[in-house]
Every structure is written in structure tokens, then in C-alpha cells.
Amino acid sequence: MNQIVYLVPAFGLVGLLYTAWKFNWVSKQDAGNEKMQELAGYIADGAIAFLKAEWKILTYFAIPTAILLAWLGSQEGTPDNPIHSSPLIAVAFLIGAVFSATAGYIGMIVATKANVRTAEAARTSLAKALNVSFTGGSVMGMGVAGLAILGLGGLFIAFYQIFAQGQALTSVEMKTAIEVLAGFSLGAESIALFARVGGGIYTKAADVGADLVGKVEAGIPEDDVRNPATIADNVGDNVGDVAGMGADLFGSYVATILATMVLGQEISVTDNYGGFSPVLLPMLIAGVGLLASLVSTFFVRISSETSSVQNALNVGNYTSIAITFVTSYFLVKNILPEYLTLRGTTFTSMDVFYAIIVGLVVGTLMSIITEYYTAMGKRPVDSIVQKSGTGHATNIIGGLAVGMESTVLPILVLAAGIIGSYHFAGIYGVSIAAAGMMATTAMQLAIDAFGPIADNAGGIAEMAQLPSEVRDRTDNLDAVGNTTAATGKGFAIASAALTSLALFAAFVGIAGISHIDIYKADVLAGLFVGGMIPFIFSALCISAVGKAAMEMVNEVRRQFREIPGIMEYKAKPEYEKCVAISTEASIRQMILPGAIALTVPVIVGFTMGPEVLGGLLAGVTVSGVLMGIFQSNAGGAWDNAKKSFEKGVLIDGQTYKKGSEPHKAAVTGDTVGDPFKDTSGPSMNILIKLMSIVSLVIAPYIHVGDNDHASATKMEKAPIVKAIVAKK
């Protein structure tokens, strides 16, 4: 293997050095007056308390899982179906889990520093406020991408040295190295699911409580210092939209690269890199994408109070895509040989580049479509605003209709992307298209994390009773942040669809099955069960938010009732009790949804066989992608429909603003949409990828030989079962 592989962890180190540099810059900005710093301290303390409680529970999950993986890795299988793994898969799993948690922690720490500094910067100008908030987001983006590339590249080099030094890419030793490397992705995605679900339950429980009692009943802003749930609400923005999203895209990033490496390991080529170019390419694309994102952060600037914040962010995003496009061409032409063959499909190096272009185009179109369906001033959001004029029910109907309609174009784009990338380079093309799309993850995360930082800044400005022009500037940033958060979720679900297809193809190869025949009754049953899982998963997440929100509503009502002087600013609310409710509820309620994703593939795989498990994965992927797009876009549209009333809207010739009856209907819609867009919706992409990765990890243990295809659903064909029976 060529020395070029050492560039991969080097790219990661560059990203982390940028992270440290910008983190230091954010920390040096003015944190405002004593009141602002006190409020920011409450938010930071609440966020840290949640993460500590979450990590404690996840430790109880991670250690037994690592022990189980170590035991499975020690199994040798049978002579007919040997298992290519090692107990070191447990080490990879733990490193992936720690890195994923660290990625979320980095984002949360910088967000809790940048929020108050953005509020203070908004005293000066919109341009300065954008600079501070976006720089805070870029720290998270570069930190996540840097950790992912450093971890994946470093472990790949280590496992190559341990298992396959001097061996060919297609050797069984390299198969072992990459199978063990899959543990890193499993650890990352496992933590991401719990972080996303737990953080989502936390933030929405607080948000619903703050909205329903503060806004609707008491008639005060949700970020009013008199609202007992306001600190918990602002904490939730950090643990859900920042820490949760950081862990989420860390897992997506790793899974996408890994899926391409697993498929690339099957390709035998003669090149200048010892035949390793098909597995080096996705890692190097991720590396140059990180550098492209780093350069592009310097283009996100505005010059005046009337400049478009959305346009500034778009310039940074499109610049990173353009740089990745150009550098990918030179990478492909200089690394890959002219011809490659995978599973009977022959393609050229230029075909691989065309597949990367397809991935970049799909990612761009998904962002544009999502922005259209969730941005203020566009037809979908305006239609919800108009329906608010006739009450709460019609607002809900309008939001549901927008969410359902918003699935059409993204699915057509995804379908075209799958067909196009497969046409150019087969299943490797689909996987490398996903890698191309995910290459600019650092920039996507920077844009995404900017939103919750701006939201928190607005909350601090409201609670600290800063001048109205400060809140106007933070509201400007926050409104754009709502749209960027929605586009980030659209980007994540699109990448999940392509990545899951690549992981599915890798699973089929490792499990030893040639096809998934849905004409078989048990496979068709698996398909239906898989289609159901996103629904029960969503139900559990939304129900958890509802239960926690009820506790929050009752607590806020109690404080308004029992603590005299809150409304007159004479008494201080008991913020810590609301923070405790969200923390305890989210930790308690996140376990069952996570257990479904982790255990169902194992149960189905070992009892029904790999072909039925394949049917299950197909059902989960299709249903999960649709549910993810529908829920995220409906929630985003409801949110911006509510925000439209802040500047006044025209309904049937009459202007309505905050506090009006149509505005109250919009608040109800936003409250319904909150768990859609921030809990269950964005969790869909982790669900489908995690189930695919679990299936990939257990594939060697349920592998069926060529003679077993006719009875591939029988448990006794699994090599690990054969080995255990033989020992007895």
C-alpha cells in the first residue's frame, strides 16, 4: 500500500487544528454584561448535566456490547464458511463511540460559548453577529469531520498493519481488516442514535412547555426571563440540534466512507498504489472535501444590515461543492486505473467521477428543494400561514399536506441519483456518489449548527432585555437558521438513502446471498415488518416528547401559580426544575427506540436468515426515507409559518401579528411539528443506517454458502451456529 494513505489522518489533523484555532477565536469575543453571562452559564451548566447523564447510561450499553463483539470476533466459523473478524472489533467499536460522543461535545461546548457572544455582537451589527455564530458552527463542522477522518484513516492504517501487511486488497486478510473497521462505524452510529433521540426528546419537551404555557396561556414570549421553561428550552437547542446533530453526521460520514471501502475491497486492479486505490479514494475524497469546506468558510460574509444571510451561507456551501468537484476529478484521474470491475460490472475511472458528480448534484438539489418547502415567503409556508386564518385545525391540515407533498421531488431526485450513479459505475458508483455528497459535511454542519447558536442568542437577548434592534438581528439569523436546519436534515436523509443502499450491497456480498426474492413469503413478510419499524420508532419518539411535555407544562403552570411575583419580575423562576424534567425524561425515554434499531436486525438475522434480513432492510430504508423527509419538512414549514407572524402577515386583506388568533393557531402547528422536525424526523436517517451497519457486522455469522441459497432463511445454515453445535 502506498504512503499516500497517511494523507488521510493528516487531513483530519488539519481539520482539528482549524477547530482549535476558531474555538480560541470565539472564546476571546466579548461575552456581554453580567446578566447575559449568568444566563449563558445556566444554559451551559444544563447542557453539561444532560451530557453527563446521557454518557453514564451509554456506558452501560457500550461496555457489554463491546464484550459481545469481542466474543463474536473470536469465533472462527466453519471450514466451509470461515468468519473473517477479530476481537479487535470491540476496540474499534469503543473508539467509534468515544469519537462520536466527542464530536457532539465539541459542538455543544462551542455553541454554549458562541450563543452569548453572538447576542453581544448583535449589539454592533448583523455582519458581526453572523461572523460569530457561523464561526461557532464551523468549529463544530471541522471538529466532526476532522475526528471522523482521523479515526477512520488511523484505524485503517493500524488494522492493515495488524492483519494484512503486504497482502493484496482482495485477500481474506484485508477482508478481516475492513470487517473489524466496521466496528468503528457501529460505535459511531449507535451513540448517534441515542444522542439524536435523547437530545430531541429533551429539546422538544422544553420547547412545547415553553410554548403552550408561556406563549399561549401567559401571553409572554417563550424566551421571556419569566418563563420557567426558557433555560431548558435553550439547553435543548444545544443538546439536540448541536450535540445530537454532530454525533448524527459524524456517524453518517463514517458509514458512507466505510460502505464504499467495503465494496472497493472486492475490486482487483493494477495501479500505482498496490491495488488499494478503490478503498483509498473515498477516504481521500473526504479529506479534500474537508479542505474545501475549510477554505469556503472564509466566503461566508455580509456587508450591511440589508444583506441576505441566506445568500452568504449559500455562497459558502456552493463554493465548497465547486472545490470538491474540481479536486475530485484530479483525484480520480491520478489514483484509479482506467478500468475497474465489480460484481460483473466494468466501468472506467471517468465513470466513477461522473458518479461523484451525481452525488454532488443530488445533495445540492435536496438542499434547494428542502429550502423551498420550509423557507418563509415561499408558497408552501405561505399556504400554512393562510390556513391559520381559519383556526388551529386547518393549520394542522395545511402542515401535514405540505410535509406529504414535500416527499415527491426529493424521492424523484434520489431515484434519479441511484439510477444515474449505478449506470456509470454500478453499485460502487452509488456508494461513491454518497461519498461525494458527504464530502462537504464540514460545511453542511457549520451551516446547520449556526442555526441553534443564533436561536440561543435570540433567547439570551430576550431574557437579558437587550434593545429591540438586537433581537431583530438575532431573529433575522434565527429565521435563516430554521431553514438551514431543515436543509441539513434533508441533506442527511439523502445521504442516508444512498449510504444504506451501499451498505445493503456490502451486506449481500458478505452474507453470501445473490439476491433478495420478495416472492418468498418470509422475505415479503420481512419487507412489511421493515416498513413498519419507522412508524413504531416515530410513535415512541413523539410519545416520549408528549409525556415529557406534559410534565413540563404542569411544572410551568405550578410555578406561575405558586410563586408570586414571577410575572412582575419580582421573583425568579425555578429554572433548574424544568431542566431536571427534560433531562430525566429524555434519558429514560431514549432507550426503547434505540433498542429497536440495535436488536431487530440481530433477531431477524439469526432466526430467519440473511435473505429475510435483506427484505427487512429494504422495507426500513424506503419507509424511513419517506418518513424522515415528511416529518422534517412538515416541522420546518410549521416553524417558519409561526415566525412569519413576527413581521405581520396578510390574510384575506387583514394584517395579523403576534398574539392574534391566527398566530395562536400557528403556534399550535409549530408545537405539533416540533417533535416531527427535531426528534423523530432526523432520527430516521440514523435508524436506517444503524440497522444496515448492524446487519453488516453480523453478516459473517449468518453467511450462507453457494449451496445454501435455496434455504437461506434457515438459522442452522449460519456458520456461528454450526461452529457452536460442532463444539458441543
Question: How would you portray this structure in words?
Answer:
This protein is an all-alpha fold and 728 residues long. Helices cover 78% and strands 2% of the residues. The protein contains 20 helices and four strands. The protein has helices spanning 7-28, 34-73, 89-121, 126-163, 172-217, 230-264, 277-296, 309-335, 349-374, 379-388, 392-405, 408-438, 441-463, 468-511, 521-562, 575-589, 591-608, 610-644, 661-698, 719-727; strands at residues 339-342, 345-348, 649-651, 654-656. β1 (339-342) and β2 form a beta hairpin. α2 (34-73) packs antiparallel against α5 (172-217) and α11 packs across α18. The protein is globular.
Derived from helix and strand composition plus strand pairing, the structural class reads: mainly alpha
Instruction: Give the number of helices.
Output: 20
Strand order of the largest sheet: 1-2
Q: Average pLDDT, to the nearest integer?
A: 87
- The amount of beta strand, in percent, is under 5%
**Assembly form of the protein:** single chain
Question: What is the ordering of alpha helices and beta strands?
Answer: HHHHHHHHEEHHHHHHHHHHEEHH
Largest sheet geometry: 2 strands, antiparallel
Head-to-tail CA distance between termini: 42 Å
**Unreliable runs:** 707-719, 721-728
What is the CA-based Rg, rounded?
25 Å
Globally, the shape reads globular
DSSP strand tally: 4
Q: How much helix is in the residues?
A: over 70%
